[in-house]
Structures are given as C-alpha cells and as structure tokens.
Design brief:
510 residues, Rossmann fold, Four Helix Bundle (Hemerythrin (Met), subunit A), 2 domains, 8-stranded mixed β-sheet, two-stranded parallel sheet, 11% strand, globular, binds 2-acetamido-2-deoxy-beta-D-glucopyranose
Amino acid sequence: MGASRLSGAALLLVLLSLAQAGKNFWLFRQYVLRLQEKHAMKEAYGRLQLLAQGPGPRAWHFLDSGSIRQPLDHFNWQDSRTFNQRFWVNRKFWQRKGPVFLYIGGESELMEYSVLSGHHVEMAEKYGALVVALEHRFYGASINPDGLEDHNLQFLTSQQALTDLLSFHRFVIQKYKLAENTTWICFGGSYPGNLAAWFRLKYPHLVFAAVASSAPVKAQVDFTGYDKVVAASLSNPVIYGSKECLAAVTEAFSTVDNLVRARQLAKLAKDFRSCEPLEGMDDSVQLLYNLADIFMGAVQYNGAFSFLPTVADLCSVMTNNRTGSTYQRLVTVNDRFIKTLGGPCMDYSFADWLKVLRDTRVTEASMLRQWFFQTCTEFGYYQTCDDPACPFSHLMNLTSSLSICPQVYNISFRRVQEAVAFTNDYYGADHPKASRVLFVNGDIDPWHVLSVLKNQSLSETAILINGTSHCANMFPSSPKDPLPLVQARQQISTQVGKWLELARTMHQDS
Ligand SMILES: *[C@@H]1O[C@H](CO)[C@@H](O)[C@H](O)[C@H]1NC(C)=O
Ligand SMILES: *[C@@H]1O[C@H](CO)[C@@H](O)[C@H](O)[C@H]1NC(C)=O
Ligand SMILES: *[C@@H]1O[C@H](CO)[C@@H](O)[C@H](O)[C@H]1NC(C)=O
Ligand SMILES: *[C@@H]1O[C@H](CO)[C@@H](O)[C@H](O)[C@H]1NC(C)=O
Ligand SMILES: *[C@@H]1O[C@H](CO)[C@@H](O)[C@H](O)[C@H]1NC(C)=O
Ligand SMILES: *[C@@H]1O[C@H](CO)[C@@H](O)[C@H](O)[C@H]1NC(C)=O
C-alpha cells in the first residue's frame, strides 16, 4: 500500500486554493485537511455527471441556487443590517407532497455537492424528497465584505446560525409552494451534526427528525480524548494499525520532543524541511503540531481521500525497521507529506500562523479565522496532548493551544472556559433531551468521544460503527464500503423511513 497517491488535479487544487487565499504557501495545519475534504467532494461530484444524464447547463435544470437576505443579528430588532446567505436545492427526486431533507452547512463553504451527493441524497431518491442546503453564516459566499473584522465576529454563533434556518424554512415553503405540514428531516456532519441535533432540539415544530453524524455535541476546552483515540486507532488491527506502530510513533515524537527541549532547532529545521529557521518555543511547538497533524488527519479521514495517507500507509513506514531509527522514519513520513503538498518546505512559523488568523480579508476559502473564533467563544475542542496515552509531544498542551484566543481575538482563558460551560448548559452536552434524533459515529473517529454514543431514550438513539472514521456514513455508498458501514447506512435509511411513516400517521390523526 503506497503512501501519497496524489493525483495531479488534487495537487493543483491544494496549491491553487492556498495561493488564492493569500496564505503562506506551505502552511497547512487544519487548512489542508479542509481542502482535502473539499477535493473528495469534488471527486464525488464528477460521478454526478451521470445524474444529469448529459453535459450542458440544461441537463442540470433540477438544481436551484441563490441567496436569501438574513438579519446580521436575529436577536436585536434595532439592528437592521443584513447579509446574503447562499442556498442549494435539488428537485431531481422530489415527488410533490414528498418530504424535505435539509442539509445544514458548517465551518467551510458549501458547494452544490451538498444537495447532489451523499447518503442523504441517496435517501432522497428512495423517499422522493426535496433536498435543500443552507450555507453557514460567515463562511463561503455567505459573508459580508467586512464580516471578518473584530466587531462583526460577534454575530458568528451557533444560535444565530440555527435561527438562520427559520427564515430558510419559510422561504423554501413559499418558493416551492409546499404544504405547511410537509415533513422536514435535517442532516449534518461534524459541527453541522451538532446543528442538526440542536435544530430539532430547539425548533421541534419546524423539523420532524434529525440525523446527526459525528457530532461533537459536548463542548470541551481540553479535548484530550482526541489523541487517546488516535493512539487507539494507530494500534487497531482492523485498520492495519499495530502495537509496534503506536510504539514507533511514540518513540519518534519523544525524540523530537527531546531535541526541542535541548534547543537543537537548526537540526530540527533541516530534518523537517522548515522554510525558515525555527525561532524559539512557539515555532517548535508549531512543528510538533504539524507533525502530529499528519497522523491525526490519517486517523480522522482514514481512507476517505485517496491522496491522504491512511493509517496503514503511515504504519507501514513507521514500523519498517530497515530504514533507520523511528525518528528517521518520521522524517520520511514528513518528507512524503510535504511532497504531496507540492512544496520544497513547510512553514512552521507561529508568527505566520497568527497572521493568517488575524487576516480579515474575505475570500470564499476563508474559514480558519472564523472557525478558531468559534472554538474560543463556544466549543474549545483543543486537541491537546495532555493525556498520558497521547503518542505525540506533551508540549502540545492546553496553554499553547489556547494561546490563540487572547493573541488573536483578545479572549481570555477564563472567558473560553465560561463560554464552553454555557454551550453545554444551553444545548445539553452529550445528553440532550431531544426526541427523534439519531446520532451516528465511527469508533476510530477521534471526535466520537464528544458525541452521543448510547441510546438516550426510545426516540433519541445512537449508532456506533465499528472501524469507520469521521462522517463516513455521509459519503456516497461505494462497493468498497466495509460491512458495518453498509449496515449502518441501512439502519439510518430504515429509521428515516419509519419517521416519514410516523409523520403520515400523525397528520392523519389530527
Ligand atoms: C524488525 O521488524 C520485524 C517485523 O516487524 C521483526 O520481526 C524484527 O524483530 C525487527 N527487528 C528489529 C531489530 O527490531
Ligand atoms: C506548555 O507548553 C509550553 C510550550 O508550548 C511550555 O512552555 C509550558 O511550560 C507548558 N505548560 C505546562 C503547564 O506544562
Ligand atoms: C481586550 O479586552 C479587554 C477586556 O475585555 C479590554 O479591556 C481591552 O481593551 C481589549 N484590548 C483590545 C486591544 O481590544
Ligand atoms: C437503541 O435503539 C435502537 C432503536 O430503537 C435499537 O435497535 C437498539 O437495539 C438500541 N441499542 C441499544 C444498545 O439498546
Ligand atoms: C470490530 O470488527 C472487528 C473485525 O473487523 C472485530 O474483530 C471486533 O471485535 C469488532 N469490534 C466490535 C466492538 O464489535
Ligand atoms: C397534509 O395535510 C393534508 C390535508 O390537510 C393531507 O392530505 C396530507 O396527507 C398531509 N401531508 C402529510 C405529509 O401528512
């Protein structure tokens, strides 16, 4: 199994997007993971040409898009400012009087694939649903030109985002002349998975049921569980991990850690191809995060994207004891990854990272400034190495992770703690008292530990899939899917069918 199977098109996309965003060329923490996700979606989109049954715009007559005007602040009637919010609609499978499937956008731009591809679209075909999707405020095309300035970021909250769905609901009913009793079911994965569960929780009169995939509904400042799952996954034989692999990774990072503590920065810069000399602890910790990200990304997206290394790829390099020390093997893993990104070097400058987060210029690809703001003001989710089981460097601690909140947004540590506690009180953390919500997770996905893993009641249920990763159940079905994933999708589809049947009976009763 070779590592770094990057197609030319993917490479181009990564490089172009980085260049367009005006970002430092090789900076990749978080950002590249997003781009890779986007690329995978585009791949799926290629297959959709079949759906349209022919080239040319007329074949796509079933796809609608546009934008609706929304108040910038739903909760202050004295503020009349607005922004335009983008939506997508797919009428291809819609049978009049059929249900509406709402796909909720999240922390990146939302493209037309959101209504054209994925398991919810397959279910729309089965159940004759109208598929609609709304981009999240402050991301993609749904942001004002001055939206990223400090004084506007206050309007970027999950409460505002959920409230945006109200007017979209009204808009869709009017535009498509739907009956008021039309059954809505909402879908989302990752942060939008939270929104799907919370939309049902807070607005049960608008949406009949929700499927929340890989939804970290429990906010947490020090998210130590993430790297615990990464460790478990690196030693999980189901995905070709092993104890030897985990041991090799742990040893390699411990060597790097010792070099950092011994201030061997010139050696580290050379071995790990730093574009600039490493300066001080901040850059060193940035290097450690970037190296860990390669492993975190492999676990979080294991196999979903053809050009990202899988756990199997990384473990085959890390356990190959004919190629020198574990440190040397980590250098090899990093070399290959940098090659995948098409660069000769990597930017580990913490100052550059802060510059990116402080950049208020708006492009459709901007997301880092917004998302990290949301982590400081609502969710935390800092993937630290504070747990003893974490295989990476323990210098990746809460202090270093949290430092962006005061440095970029002038938000103190205490405020972050308070905000996270509020989020959990407001939505109910991992035991929300909702009904008709199905939580779906994969057990090798590091995010699953913040989600709902057990049935909460007869109508708030959970599926934990053996051996799959982040949002795997949302991707289109493929013949290569493992059995537990196939079975989970069947269960989800059956549940959706039962909800629709229940909705029909309830309407008849009334
Ligand atoms: C190298 O790895 C092989 C197989 O993983 C193992 O059998 C062997 O004992 C290892 N050699 C050393 C020197 O660790
Ligand atoms: C956290 O890590 C930083 C380096 O980023 C280090 O200077 C600091 O001492 C660590 N703090 C704790 C509490 O371990
Ligand atoms: C940062 O926040 C503090 C307290 O909220 C405030 O007093 C201070 O003026 C802020 N600094 C800047 C540069 O905005
Ligand atoms: C959870 O609920 C579902 C649906 O009612 C049921 O099929 C499943 O067996 C339950 N799981 C557990 C562990 O009770
Ligand atoms: C997951 O599947 C593997 C086989 O692929 C099996 O060995 C393991 O016991 C399963 N785990 C659970 C929790 O069912
Ligand atoms: C909505 O109400 C109409 C009558 O008012 C009924 O005929 C129809 O079946 C209902 N639709 C659903 C989805 O229950």
